[in-house]
Specification:
With 512 residues, this protein is of the alpha/beta class. It has helices at 40-47, 70-75, 93-98, 111-124, 140-152, 170-185, 197-203, 221-224, 236-244, 299-306, 329-335, 344-348, 355-360, 376-390, 406-420, 436-451, 463-469, 493-500, and strands at residues 2-11, 14-24, 29-33, 55-60, 63-64, 78-81, 158-162, 189-193, 206-211, 214-220, 263-272, 276-284, 288-292, 314-319, 322-324, 337-340, 368-370, 373-374, 424-428, 455-459, 472-477, 480-485.
Length: 512
């Protein structure tokens, strides 16, 4: 259906793609993997008409094709689910689903039909979302589901998915994978991009690996299966080595030397309507406390309240034995609490500013020379130091942060909090949409922050991540803490998921 022949694309200072040749046929799912910055997003933009290649040829159904715009690509049956959401927040779910899709009849919008169709599409993804709800009021996971449903509404011949499950619960992710396979069964083609290799293994017929703008490996899983109807399993260790260009000793780094000390952060009776109900816990110096649960369990709300970004109805937060009155993030930052937000582009960064400016924002008082004047040389030296230590890959310090890969954007956020010297680090989905190489580096820095005596709260929808990186784990369901796991490394993942889903729970919290 689609063939790319020696596609190349360059930007100032970087070759994003170098003579990449790929093909995907009708009824096939092609898995596309690689580190952030490998060229995957550039390839998507070219196929979807958002960019023009510098060289090479695109063929659609055996004929040369050149897409003038994303609208041109959509008219030819190509739909894209981007990693970054493109919804209009002020419009309803129904309006976003059918916006610009030409579903009206003689200029008259068919609202009843649109509402029925919206409910059908959302049911396919096992999401209970009101089509009349405004998108700005939805959680990140719900907005991601609307983005996916919007693409499915077009009934595309070629569906391109870029990290589509990053904000979805495991149940919702499985529903999406079923829909991708169903599209392929009906003769459509799909290109599936994900850092979650278990999803690639579940859905892809073939796997292509990009590294530094080049195609370095292609795996035909049907051929590897010896002609059987099934798919050969993926050698994940070898695949990761191919992606990053080096061997990783393990998926998660070991815990660094350092004893867990006395209580640093205490949360008592934190409540906010039905979203958060009487949540209490403590985190000690040098401890990583994991917070597990499904999307909508209240985990992000807890982190935002501790950070002063949301107001609780009641509850207390204590830091090093002192009660805090946190009415804003500014107060939390001054007290020594920082947050890596779930939506780093929407809430963690100012995309129009440079990486250096984003690093400096919460640290301007540290770089102040006299009254309101900032010592730019001191600021630059500090940024250069953290840029080197965290291996933040930039063309220059003044490069707009929006142009960086997800992993490097997250490192900019981490760098500014390390410069700030925070005592409590709240990590909400810190590796969402980040490749395995950068993910390992972020894990190392979480370990290092704990070893330095910081208290770390780790919120993650990836069960393996939260169990492997945490010293203790709390499991949330429906706004409450429903279980505590004292030895996460030995925990039963199925049991944790049952607790997170509320299966077999009484109204009173239980201990796992």
């Amino acid at each position: 259906m689609l063939e790319l022949q020696r596609i190349s694309k360059s930007y100032p200072g970087v070759d994003a793609l170098r003579a990449v040749s790929l093909a995907v046929g009708a009824g096939e799912v092609l898995g596309l993997v690689g580190e952030n910055g490998a060229g995957k997003s550039t390839l998507i933009r070219i196929v979807s008409g958002a960019e023009r290649p510098d060289g090479g040829r695109i063929e659609l159904d055996g004929r040369a094709a050149a897409f003038a715009s994303p609208a041109d690509a959509r008219q030819r049956g190509i739909a894209v689910i981007h990693q970054e959401l493109s919804l209009v927040p002020q419009l309803s779910v129904r309006e976003n689903l059918f916006l610009g899709a030409g579903w009206s009849r003689r200029g008259i919008v068919r609202r009843r039909w649109e509402e029925r169709e919206a409910r059908r599409l959302l049911r396919l993804l096992e999401m209970d979302i009101d089509p009349g709800a405004r998108c700005s009021e939805l959680s990140l996971g719900a907005r991601q589901a609307v983005e996916i449903a919007k693409a499915l509404a077009l009934e595309p011949r070629l569906l391109i998915l870029d990290e589509p499950t990053a904000a979805l619960s495991p149940r919702e992710a499985r529903a999406l994978l079923r829909q991708v396979r169903e599209l392929a069964r009906r003769g459509a083609a799909a290109i599936y991009i994900s850092h979650r290799l278990e999803e690639i293994e579940a859905v892809a017929d073939r796997v292509a690996v990009l590294r530094d703008g080049e195609l370095v490996r292609s795996i035909d899983r049907r051929e590897s299966a010896g002609g059987d109807d099934g798919l050969a399993p993926l050698d994940r260790d070898r695949l990761i080595e191919t992606m990053v260009g080096r061997a990783l000793s393990a998926e998660f780094p070991p815990r660094l030397p350092g004893a867990i000390g006395e209580t640093r952060l205490e949360v008592r009776g934190l409540s906010a309507g039905r979203r958060v109900r009487d949540v209490s816990f403590d985190i000690r110096r040098g401890e990583v406390l994991g917070l597990a649960g499904l999307v909508g369990a209240g985990r992000t709300d807890v982190a935002r309240m501790i950070f002063g970004a949301a107001a609780p109805d009641r509850g207390e937060v204590w830091l090093d034995g002192r009660r805090l009155e946190l009415r804003s993030p500014r107060q939390a930052i001054r007290s020594g609490i920082c947050l890596l937000p779930e939506d780093r582009r929407g809430e963690g960064l100012v995309l129009s500013r440079s990486a250096r400016a984003n690093f400096a924002l919460p640290n301007l008082d540290r770089f102040r020379r006299w009254r309101a004047l900032v010592d730019r040389h001191r600021e630059g030296r500090a940024f250069s130091r953290w840029r080197e230590q965290l291996d933040i890959r930039l063309v220059r310090a003044g490069q707009r942060v929006a142009t960086l890969s997800g992993g490097n954007q997250q490192k900019v956020v981490i760098a500014r909090w390390l410069e700030r010297g925070a005592r409590v680090v709240l990590c909400d989905e810190p590796t969402r949409g980040i490749d395995v190489g950068a993910r390992y580096e972020i894990y190392e820095w979480i370990r290092r922050m704990a070893a330095e005596g910081k208290a770390v709260l780790l919120i993650s929808s990836e069960l393996e991540e939260v169990l492997s990186m945490s010293d203790r784990v709390l499991v949330m369901h429906d706004g409450r803490v429903r279980g505590e796991i004292l030895e996460p490394a030995n925990a039963d993942p199925a049991g944790v998921l049952r607790t997170a889903a509320g299966i077999g729970l009484s109204e009173a919290p239980s201990v796992a």
